[in-house]
Amino acid sequence: MSAETASGPTQDQVEILEYNFNKVNKHPDPTTLLLIAAEAGLSEEETQKWFKQRLAQWRKSEGLPSEVRSVTD
């Protein structure tokens, strides 16, 4: 499996990650992240990295700043 993860998640893994990103939660809590990682067959770190990169991609496509700031800032 290390050969697959070295070049990134497989198509099946990306589908699981994308589904969870779009339909479940763009900001999963640690428990949810662990469950998504287990479902996709990835490590927690790989899953967290994917969500961070995907969120940055999504924010850019939405014309939002790359970092989240509080509404009161």
Mean pLDDT: 84
Helix content: 55-70%
Specify the CATH class of the domain at 11-53. Mainly Alpha
**Unreliable residue runs:** 1-5
Taken from the alpha-carbon principal axes, the silhouette is: globular
Report the strand count: 0
Number of helices, where a helix is a run of at least 4 consecutive DSSP H or I residues: 4
What is the fold named in CATH at topology level of the domain at 11-53?
A: Arc Repressor Mutant, subunit A
Main sheet overview: none
Alpha-carbon Rg, integer: 13 Å
Oligomeric assembly = single chain
Tell me the series of helices and strands, N- to C-terminal.
Answer: HHHH
- Estimated share of beta-strand residues: under 5%
CATH superfamily of the domain at 11-53: Homeodomain-like
Q: What class, by secondary structure content? A: mainly alpha
Report the CATH architecture of the domain at 11-53: Orthogonal Bundle
N-to-C span: 44 Å
Keywords: Developmental protein, DNA-binding, Homeobox, Nucleus, Repressor, Transcription, Transcription regulation
Protein name: Homeodomain-only protein
Organism: Myotis davidii (David's myotis)
InterPro entries: HD (IPR001356), Homeodomain-like_sf (IPR009057), HOPX (IPR039162)
